[in-house]
Amino acid sequence: MLQSELLAKVSKEAPKDEKSVNAQFLTRAGFIYKEMAGAYTYLPLGFRVLRKIENIIREEMENIGGKEILMTIFQPKSLWEETGRWSGGVGDIMYKCDDEGEIGLGPTHEEMLTDIVRHYVSSYRDLPQYIFQIQTKFRKELRAKSGLLRGREFSMKDLYSFHATKEDFLKYYKRAAAAYVKVFKRCGLSSLMTEASGGDFTKDFTHEFQVLAPGGEDTVIYCPKGHFSRNKEIAGDLRGGQKCPQCTETLKEAKSIEVGNIFPLGEKYSEAMKAYFVDKDGQRKPIIMGCYGIGPSRTMGAIVEIHHDERGIIWPKEVAPFRVHLIQIGKEKRVAKAAKDLYRSLQKQNIEVLYDDREDKTPGEKFAEADLIGIPWRAVISEKTIKKNSVELKERSKKSLRLVKINQAAKYVK
Amino acid sequence: MLQSELLAKVSKEAPKDEKSVNAQFLTRAGFIYKEMAGAYTYLPLGFRVLRKIENIIREEMENIGGKEILMTIFQPKSLWEETGRWSGGVGDIMYKCDDEGEIGLGPTHEEMLTDIVRHYVSSYRDLPQYIFQIQTKFRKELRAKSGLLRGREFSMKDLYSFHATKEDFLKYYKRAAAAYVKVFKRCGLSSLMTEASGGDFTKDFTHEFQVLAPGGEDTVIYCPKGHFSRNKEIAGDLRGGQKCPQCTETLKEAKSIEVGNIFPLGEKYSEAMKAYFVDKDGQRKPIIMGCYGIGPSRTMGAIVEIHHDERGIIWPKEVAPFRVHLIQIGKEKRVAKAAKDLYRSLQKQNIEVLYDDREDKTPGEKFAEADLIGIPWRAVISEKTIKKNSVELKERSKKSLRLVKINQAAKYVK
C-alpha cells in the first residue's frame, strides 16, 4: 500500500480524551478513529490488524473442529425470557431498541444458538457440535474508558460446544484451552490460564486467559513458573508472596488484561430452553454445553498495551498490518525507481509492504512515523544506499541497522 | 467437511412462514435459520456462501483502489443532525436505542465517513480517496417478507469515493460501474445497469444494478441487447414494446431484483458537514462524493431466485459452498475407504468437498438432499463404481452422468 494514499494521517499529539496507552498510540498512528466512548472505527491500518487477529482465531477454532456461522445481532425478547435473562444480569447490559415489540442487541449468544441446536439436534448421534462466530457485540459499559480494552461495540469470537456426556465436554474444554494459548502466542501474547468466577454464566469454576500488563483492569495472583493463576476477585486470603499451591515457587501479584475466557455451562441453558437429546440408552437428557470467548478488538488493544516503547507500537509479526515499512528518502528519480522496484518485488514475493512514497516529509518525520506505526521491518532506500545497490534494514524491536543488497532484502524480512 | 457433522439438517417440508423461493430453499437446505422477520442466522453452509460473495466483492473493490475499513454500527445522533437526516427520510428507517442520549444503528454510513474524511483530508493532495467496508446494516422494514432480498438486519458493502473534481469523480464512477458488472458476473448474475431515481440520497440520476427474476420487487424496462435499462418507477410513459432509445431493438419489461446501486452524491454531504479541501488554486471547496452499495446477503438471495429448479438450488461455481458433493453409497469397508481416500485427495488438491458419510440414509434420500443443497459437482462412490476403480460424476446443472477413474476425478471437477 502506498502511504501517500492512506486516508489516516499520523498525529504528533495524543488525543485529549484518551487515557489508555492503546487508544493513544492507535489513534495517533491512524489505526482507529473514535466515534463515541467505547466505539471505534478501524481505519485501513487498524482493519488489517483486526482481520489478522480474527484469522488467527478462525484458524485455531477450525483446528479444534469449530464450524463457523453468523448469528444475528438482533435478539428476540422471547428467547431471553426462556432463560430469565431479558432483564437482570446480562440483560441489564443489553441494548434494546424498539420496533414492533422489543429487540435486543446481542451481548452474547447462548440463547440464540441453544435455540438453533434444539431445532436440529435430537439424538446423541448429532453430538458433539462445535459452533463459532466472529461478530460485533454490544454491551452497556459505564466505564468505556480503556480504548479497545472495554468497548460498547466490539468484536467477539464466541465458540459454543454441545456434548452428550460430561467426559466428552471436559476433553473438549482442555482442547479449547490449549487452542486459546496457541491463539494468544501467535498474537505475541503470553497468556495465563486463570481460575475465575462464573459471573452471570455459571456457578462452576471458569477460566480466564490473562496477559500481564500495567494497563490491565484485573489483578492475578500467579506462579511465575506457570503452575497456577487465580483472579484476585476470587482469591480469598491468597496473596502474592505466598507459596504456589502447585509447586515451591513464590506467587506473584500483577495487573492483567483478560483476553479470553472459557466457561463450563453444564445444563443451565439446555434445561431452561429444553434442548434435549435422546441418548444411547433411550433416555432424554439435556445437552451439556461449554462456551469460549475471545475479543479480537480487545486482543488488539492488549497487544499494544504490552508491545510498545516511548516512540510507538511494536507489532508482533503475525498481527502487524504490514511486514515491511519501505521508506524512500529523497526525491531523486534513481531513488524513487529503486524504491518502487523493491516495493513491487517484495509484493510479488507475497511480502506485505507499506511504501512511504511521500515527498513532502523529512527523513526525521518519516522515521518517527514509522516508529509510531510499528511495522516489524523498516527498509530505507536513499541516495546513499543505492550507491551500494543496497537497502538499510532495521527491526522495529532492535537498535541495529544493517545494509544489505537490494536483491537480498526479501530473505531477511521473511 | 463431513455431512454427518453438519449442524443443520435438510428438511423435506417448506417453512410455513416463508413465501419467497430463496428463503424456502435456503431454509430447507440448511443454509439459513430465521430469527425474526428480516433477520437470519447463516448456518455453516450459508456462511460459506456469504463469505465467498463478500470476498468476490472485496477483491473487485480492491482492484479499483478501494481501501477497507470497518466503521461502527452505533451512530452518534450529532452527526446525523448535521445533515438533517436523524429524523425524516432515511432517519425514519433507522433503529434507535437508548443509552446516555440516543444512538442509531447504521442504515448507511455517509455521515460517519464524511466526518472521518473531513478530519484527515485538507488538501487536493489527499484526494482522491476510495474507502469501503463490509458490514451489518439495519433498516426498519415493514415488508421484510422476501427472505434475504429485504432484511431488517443484512450484510452490506458500501464504498465511498472522494474527489477534487467532477471529472475525476465521473471517471471513477465508470470504473466502479464496470467493477459492479464483474462482481455480479462472478456471482453468476447477469446485471443490467439501470437508470433510477436518487431517493433520499441525491437529486441526480443514479444507477441500480438489476437482475431479472420473477421473484423481484422491481420492474425494469430494458433493451435485450443491453443498450438501455430504466427502473419503471421513473420511466414515465416508456413501456415494454416501444423502441429502445439507443438502438433499433424493442424494449422489454420484466420483474427484477436490485442487487447494487451507485450514486453521485455531489457536494450534498460535504457541504452540509463542511468537508472542504484546499484546491491547487488555493480555494476552499467541498469534496465531491460518490457512493456504491452491494448487499452480499441480498445477492445470495438473488442467486437462489435465479439459479434453481424444482428440486433445489443450483449454485454458480464461484459462490458454491463446496465444489464437490461426495456421496458414499453403502456401508461396506471398501466403499468407505475409497470414499475417504477420494475426500482426502481432493482436499489436498484444494478442492472443497462436502462428504456425505452418513450411514442412515438411503441413496434416494442422499441424492434428493444433494439436489436441494445444489453443489456444482456430485461424485458418487458405491460398490458398483469401485469395481471399476471409478467414481460417478454429475453436474448439478446437467443430466448426464459419467464414470471416470477415481484418480482422474480432480481434473474433471476443477
List the helices and strands and how they pair.
The structure is a homodimer of 414-residue chains.
Chain A: H1 21-28, E1 32-36, E2 39-42, H2 44-63, E3 67-68, E4 74-76, H3 77-82, E5 96-99, E6 101-105, H4 110-120, E7 129-138, E8 153-163, H5 166-186, E9 192-196, E10 206-212, E11 218-222, E12 229-231, E13 252-266, H6 268-272, E14 276-278, E15 284-286, E16 288-294, H7 296-306, E17 308-309, E18 312-313, E19 324-329, H8 333-348, E20 353-356, H9 363-373, E21 377-382, H10 383-387, E22 390-395, E23 401-405, H11 409-413
Parallel strand pairs in A: 3-7, 19-20, 19-21
Antiparallel strand pairs in A: 1-2, 4-6, 5-6, 7-8, 8-16, 9-10, 10-13, 11-12, 11-13, 13-16, 14-15, 17-18, 21-22, 22-23
CATH architectural arrangement of the largest domain in chain A: 2-Layer Sandwich
Largest interface: A-B, 51 and 51 residues
Oligomer: homodimer
| Approximate strand percentage of chain A | 25-35%
Our count of domains of chain A comes out at 2
Which secondary-structure class do the elements of chain A indicate?
alpha+beta
CATH homology superfamily of the largest domain in chain A = Bira Bifunctional Protein, Domain 2
Largest sheet of chain A: 9 strands, mixed
- CATH class of the largest domain in chain A reads Alpha Beta
Q: Say how many strands of chain A there are.
A: 23
CA-to-CA gap between the ends of chain A? 18 Å
